[in-house]
Amino acid sequence: MKTFTLFIALLFSVNLLIAQSDITICHTPATESFAMFASNQKFNSEHPVPEPYVHRSKIGKMIKIKTSDGKTANAYLLESQVDSDDYLFVIHEWWGLNGHIKKMAEKYYSDLGTVNVLALDLYDGKVAETREKASEYMSQVDDKRARAIIQGAIDYAGNSSEIATIGWCFGGGWALQAAMMAGSEAQGAVIYYGMPEKDVEKIKEKVNFPVLGIFAREDEWITPEIVENFQKDMEEAQKELNVHFYEASHAFANPSNPDYDKEATEDAYQKSMAFLKRVLD
Length: 281
Prior knowledge:
Blueprint: H1 2-26, H2 30-35, H3 41-45, E1 60-66, E2 72-78, E3 86-91, H4 99-112, E4 116-120, H5 131-140, H6 143-157, E5 162-168, H7 170-181, E6 186-192, H8 200-206, E7 211-216, H9 224-236, E8 241-246, H10 262-279
Parallel strand pairs: 3-4, 3-5, 5-6, 6-7, 7-8
Antiparallel strand pairs: 1-2, 2-4
InterPro entries: AB_hydrolase_fold, Dienelactn_hydro, Dienelactone_hydrolase-like
Signal peptide: 1-19
Keywords: Hydrolase, Signal
């Protein structure tokens, strides 16, 4: 009888551990879920090294911003030519804040008009020139430090600002997180094939702005299933989400990608521009 009782107790303990393990997996933060891809060789191999490019600009400049952890961070700033409280936060891919991201930031700046554009550096000055370094830098991102940098950018923009965010890949997930952190200043977020928020309770509480999702049907990482779950969670939370799928692969909007899809990229850009103009109007 004692043996049977011990067996039942042991079985209960094992089931409890399994249940707790399942709960942990379900609530792994979205940004950490994406960072786990850094150790996947296939994920790394599908990110060709970008062509060397140094961005030179007469209007953009690197600045230092104070962060909420008492330190400073780097950011690339393009100031509106007229007085404006509108801000677009741009968040880089896993390569870091390189010339290609600065170029995209300036393109959005030019096409949006009276908007301040701030491209954030979540790598604290590190820029990867190889897949190995990109994998290393992405896996080393500390969640608290990244959020301190984002909070510093929010503080820099000011309490009266209206903030929209955009990011690609690694930066896509962080673009959503940044908007969630911005509170009443948040006006919208654009996610390019980044990891969406997976905690429906956080969505209910923190996503008080429209979201535009740009995804690829052939993406093996941010899969259609992940996106569909996000759509269900957003619908359950009664939040605005517009999703556009393209018959393309992950990182299809990066010109250095062999699977770069020019037509899809141009269409996605026009959709993101229309969205940003609407939310920052």
